[in-house]
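User:
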Amino acid sequence: MCGIAGLVGFGPDGRQNIERMKARMAHRGPDADGTWVSEDGSVVLGHQRLAIRDLSAAGAQPFVSASGRSVIVYNGEIYNGDEVKRALADAGWRGSFRSTCDTEVLIEACEWLGVERALKLCRGMFAFGLCDLEHGTLTLARDRAGEKPLYYGCVTNPEGKAAFAFASDLGSIAAIEGFSAPVDRGVLDIYFEHGYIPAPYSIYEGIRKLVPGTILTVKLAAQGSAAGNPETAEEWERRSSVRTYWSMREAALRGREHPFEGSFSEASQELERRLREAIRGQSEADVPLGAFLSAGIDSSTIVALMQTQSERPVRTFTIGMEDPAYNEADAAARIARPLGTEHTELRISEKDAKSVIPLLPKMFAEPFADSSQIPTYLVSRLTRQYVTVSLSGDAGDELFCGYTTYASAERVWRRCQRIPRLLRRAGGGLVLHSPLRRFPALAVESRLLAADCPEDIYRLSFRTDERTAGIALEHPGYPYAYTVTGRNELGEVNRDIMLMDADMYLPDDILVKVDRTSMAVSLESRVPMLDRDVCEFAWTLPIGYLRAEHPSRADGTLDARGNRLGKLVLRDILYRYVPRELVDQPKKGFAVPLARWLREPELRQWAEALLSPERIRREGYLDAEVVSSLWNEYTESGVWRAQIWYILMFEAWLESVRR
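Assistant: Predicted structure:
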């Protein structure tokens, strides 16, 4: 795991600025660093190394191919290196490897097989920049699901011309001398609805995130002729092309067209086989390795299968909170016992958790407001004291229908369908254009009533107050990212909503949170459920294998509280290793009691300073009256809106970049 950076066309100060970019993300790779400069000085690549495979200098980057034609800076892991090597041999490659690192396998595969063919073959998580000196191209690529980040865009060089930059960390691009990109107001509506900024956008105008599963190629000047590089952002864009080599949507559509036709038991056995294979590959490392363990189905399944393939007890880690409503440590410990892991638990105080808040703006480098970022950072910090690599159970909810909100959206949509569409739309519109819209609950219900599809139901269910749609002052109207899934595309409510989350919430919230918090402490986190073969198989499974259509306590599809269980096929695997009574409990979630903390003196003072109307008006991004209204309702009546934390993280980020 590493941090990568590149500058093209910046001029004589290119190397100096690469060093600035590297310093900003030294936490992503504290073991070593390297810089490569092209002969003409127009291309500069930088790398911060967290050594995981081949700890020797032979694995150092930037890495030059055997032919000398290509140079790569790479962040990630390729888990099927032997398979890629066989494909190289079949393609006629007769070289000998100088190292045992996957970087060398990747660069030779890209050079001999072509980037797209190589990436379709590779199983892993990655982001890289590859300079092809022979063809004069710079290629950026990102893994299928978006586990590893990659930002890119144009910056201004000392001569006032556009240069091209890319990096693992948005803060590294902002660290370039003279960086002055303004806040992109077009992303604010989406951010204040969800608490994160989805790809391809970033908080800065002109700086983008590479979409997962895509390849960006930029045509550079011929080798030795720096004068041929573009000089304006428009020309850089004309020289660039993006193509998709894999997408979650296409995987879901293939799964619909070619569904799994075996029994539930056969599906469970096949899924276990694929998960075992993924975990085997992701357990390869030349450094200590462990796993996060909560009381949930996903991490417990990963640890169970990991332990069956390990000759020694797997190291597992969890944190406990003082507040019982947010503490899953005891349940995690009970699960660890039958699995036989070497379990480590840390009890953290409110003071420990609150101390993380000042670190968040720099950690994420743009506004990000999933409050579980706090405990995720704390468990990563604990884990890093013992191991360098940790496996996690992320993506289980999105791939195996785990969120209870899916069932809720399905239930609301079925009720809506009982009313003719025209009548629903007319009734909803009547309320929204009347004084009744002042009542938040009525306004939300009316929008749900007027929904055209299940996706609308799901999206609008997160907006509990219509005022939150007016937090930002300007609304340029960027396309709403969820529309990429189409409407009712998979023909089943749960699956359509799962695809929405897998396409945006998973890569732009969950995986961002895991990457930034773990890399803040130089810990590599791996996600076996996002293995290509596991992921693609998940989309073939009938919905009844994930969530029962007619649940009952008799067949074990309801928990003790009567809640409808999801992830049935995953549960079936886990029940072979852990007594079901230990795992069929309502999950408390990986969260912190922010709503209570912000009413207490320490954080309330911090929040009110950030949200003062005078400050908000002076900055000119948000509607001070809306912000004050939400905050006053919360402090006076205890009415909590998630958007309060979204606003605080935006304001905290603004303050951090002004320093």
